[in-house]
Design brief:
The chain is mostly helical. The protein is built from eight helices and no strands.
Length: about 250
């Protein structure tokens, strides 16, 4: 069953699609795609593992909601290229695991919310973003979700930095996750340059992603080292939240 409206299904009869590639199945494409899949697979697995060890989400909650809705829409709602749909299904499976960890550990990043309100916030973002992803695919004639996906990646890169600063610890994070995410995104940008060379906005976003990712690699490396651990150790002990000393309200002693 085709879930797309006629204007999106019959792309050639109206105008070229924003996702129409120059050469979608050349050798460079498949070689780079293997690298993208490998590094993102490692990033997902390492993030899931680190979240389990530290009992803190490896990927920021809001980004998980946006990404989960993207994978859902582009796996079950919008028709995809034959090579793209299986990949979306795989990432959707990983997203289910990450969403479970968000439900279990994510509220720690939102201490002022009750458990129920935290869950409402998460699923509300999922619902809103699912509609937005669908409408963006229709509006930009972007069946592959290239624009929404890359914009999401910009937000993901920025959110890692923000989360590291807010937690003031490497809980849920590691240099390995940061490096794998950086390499996966870099190869994705290279692939876009090869098969979508005229997509200036998307290529600009990938430059921003690379800058943010390299910044994050440096920051998380320094944070782990400041905690007295080896940044390259895969078996780092659980990271606990730093103790925050509130200013004393007791009257000064004369």
């Amino acid at each position: 069953m085709n879930w797309l409206p006629p204007a999106l299904v019959d792309l050639p009869s109206v105008a070229p699609s924003a996702s129409e590639p120059r050469d979608f199945r050349n050798g460079w494409f498949w070689a780079i795609v293997v690298g993208i899949a490998l590094f993102w697979f490692l990033a997902y697995c390492l993030a899931i593992h680190r979240a389990y060890v530290d009992k803190r989400t490896g990927i920021p909650t809001v980004v998980v909601a946006i990404n989960f809705s993207w994978e859902f829409v582009h796996s079950f709602v919008i028709d995809q290229e034959p090579a793209q749909r299986p990949a979306n299904f795989i990432w959707f499976f990983f997203d289910i695991i990450i969403v479970y960890q968000v439900m279990k550990y994510g509220k720690k990043d939102f201490p002022k919310l009750t458990e129920r309100n935290f869950q409402r916030l998460f699923w509300g973002i999922c619902g809103y973003c699912a509609v937005q992803h669908y409408l963006m695919a229709y509006e930009f004639r972007d069946v592959l979700g290239m624009y929404s996906g890359v914009a999401l990646n910009v937000g993901l890169s920025a959110s890692f930095i923000i989360t590291l600063r807010q937690r003031r610890s490497s809980a849920g994070q590691s240099v390995h996750i940061a490096v794998c995410k950086t390499l996966g995104s870099f190869l994705a940008g290279l692939n876009v340059l090869i098969i979508f060379p005229s997509r200036a906005l998307v290529l600009f976003w990938f430059v921003i992603i690379l800058v943010l990712d390299l910044t994050y690699v440096r920051m998380v490396f320094r944070q782990i080292r400041a905690e007295g651990q080896s940044p390259w150790a895969l078996n780092r002990p659980p990271v606990t939240d730093p103790v925050v000393h509130e200013p004393s309200t007791a009257p000064a002693v004369a």
